[in-house]
Design brief:
Blueprint (H helix, E strand, L loop, with lengths): L5 H17 L4 H17 L5 H21 L4 H35 L15 H17 L8 H9 L12 H10 L4 H36 L6 H32 L17 H7 L2 H15 L7 H19 L3 H19 L9 H20 L3 H11 L10 H20 L3 H11 L1 H27 L12
Helix pairs in contact: 1-2, 2-6, 3-4, 3-5, 3-6, 4-5, 8-9, 8-16, 8-18, 9-14, 9-15, 9-16, 11-12, 12-13, 13-14, 14-15, 17-18
Length: 473
């Protein structure tokens, strides 16, 4: 079920919120309701996928109990952690990477293996990472083991973060599951945050998706003008940001409506001045996960020589690329990020304060090139698309198609570029700090949110194009 769907907005969410506040007198009943609602939310469309998630919940619950019991017996604890990783990553491999691996074998041998058509369960990468982090945190003593299966199930399946994050650590939500307090302020802020995220998704991301999909379908296999190829790349750059940050806003807003507080997942990544900074601002919870469970255990940057640091970065960015999908494009995309982050660390580029505009242009250039590879179905089409961008086919700079897309979507491009910058944050600060503007803004803001919601609904009712990129991961 999509957050940006009529079924969710007008049936599922009002019903769950209504029942939740009717049961406000009992934390246990509220949590039971959230668990049942989360399982129903996940089962919508493909009911049997729930069995996979329930299996993940059960075996991670058991592994956590075992590793807590045998924590002092080092070999036993390591064996349990190893088994937990094999089971979790094995399940992820079967559903996400098996067909890709068999395809590689067939391309390099004469085995002719049959490639199964395995459907990818929604959010499997996210709930697998939740399960792994929970067991490892219990082993490290970063949180008490949960002896009640019900709470582990709620942690992993809680529907606001279930299918596209943010990736939460158990110890950040454990206390909230039993001691949270709802308030009108939280609910109001949550509603506004949800509607802002809905607007990002429905108005900006979906509009950019139309442009990007049209241009990528042409520029990946045939010659188009350079300006059109760049326009498609910029459209996808805006689409993926508003798609994923919009989803994160909706997740954070929904959590607040139910009294939970999630950590931020995006902090205006397109204002970054380096690739290192970009990854401190983009999908923060995934970057934090890889730091905590891969990079730091390998030694991180605090190693005796830079060779090991480069090795650690290569492992992390190889895994980050593969995490996003089973295709060589994701591997190359991960390696591009590794290359520039490693160079920035070697030359301390991230600490520089000169040539700020040039640094920003450099960062965005690498990011856009990376998104072209990330978006392309294979490396051949990615190469062809990049060739179009740089005029390698004698394809010229301008075309009427570029003008048509600019004329039709200029409004959304301008809005998209503006809202990549922290305008909303500064407006909020103005409301809080600026006594002169507070009253007018307090009147305008709720009206703006209501209008935004109504416009989004009108788009959804019309059945506009509504893909969700991160549901594929």
């Amino acid at each position: 079920m999509l957050f940006s769907s009529v079924v969710f907005l007008f049936y599922f969410l009002p019903l769950v919120l209504g029942l939740y506040y009717v049961l406000r007198f009992s934390v246990t009943l509220k949590n039971m309701l959230l668990l049942v609602a989360s399982l129903f939310f996940y089962a919508w469309g493909e009911p049997w996928f729930v069995l996979i998630m329930l299996a993940s919940i059960c075996f991670n619950y058991v592994f956590a109990l075992l590793v807590d019991k045998f924590r002092e017996r080092r070999n036993a604890a390591y064996t349990i952690i190893t088994m937990m990783l094999i089971v979790n990553l094995g399940m992820l491999f079967v559903f996400k990477y098996l067909a890709f691996a068999l395809r590689i074998v067939n391309e390099n041998t004469s085995f002719g293996l049959s490639i199964p058509n395995i459907a990818l369960p929604l959010g499997i990468s996210f709930f697998t990472f939740h399960g792994i982090s929970y067991v490892i945190d219990v082993y490290r003593g970063h949180g008490a083991v949960q002896k009640n299966l019900f709470y582990v199930a709620l942690y992993i399946s809680f529907f606001p973060q279930l299918v596209a994050g943010p990736i939460l650590r158990y110890n950040t939500i454990a206390d909230q599951m039993v001691n949270r307090k709802e308030s009108w302020d939280k609910f109001a802020v949550g509603c506004c945050r949800f509607i802002v995220g809905l607007g990002k998704k429905v108005l900006l991301s979906n509009s950019m998706a139309i442009v990007a999909d049209h241009i990528f379908s042409m520029a990946g296999t045939s010659e188009v003008s350079s300006s059109l190829a760049w326009l498609g790349a910029i459209a996808y750059t805006l689409q993926i940001y508003f798609d994923f940050s919009g989803y994160s806003d909706m997740a954070i807003g929904l959590a607040l409506m139910f009294g939970f507080k999630f950590e931020e997942n995006f902090r205006y990544p397109y204002i970054s001045r380096s690739i290192t900074e970009f990854w401190r601002r983009w999908h923060i919870s995934l970057g934090t996960w890889f730091k905590e469970y891969v990079y730091f255990p390998l030694g991180g940057s605090r190693v005796t020589n830079k060779d090991k640091m480069i090795r650690n970065l290569l492992i992390v960015w190889g895994l980050t690329g593969v995490w996003h999908g089973a295709e060589w494009t994701f591997v190359v995309w991960g390696l591009i990020n590794f290359t520039f982050i490693a160079l920035e660390k070697i030359f301390s580029f991230d600490k520089g304060t000169r040539f700020i505009p040039l640094r920003h242009l450099y960062a965005m250039f690498i990011v856009v090139i990376g998104w072209v590879i990330f978006r392309s179905p294979d490396l051949l089409q990615a190469g062809h698309y990049l060739g179009n961008m740089f005029g390698l086919y004698g394809n010229g700079f301008w075309s009427d198609t570029t003008g048509m897309f600019l004329k039709e979507y200029a409004f959304f491009f301008i809005l998209g570029i503006l809202f990549c910058m922290p305008i909303a944050t500064r407006m909020n600060k103005l409301m809080v700090d600026g006594a002169r503007f507070r009253k007018p803004l307090e009147l305008v803001y709720p009206l703006t949110i209501i209008v935004l919601f109504l416009v989004c609904v009108s788009y959804l009712v019309k059945g506009t194009y509504n893909p969700f990129i991160y549901f594929n991961f």
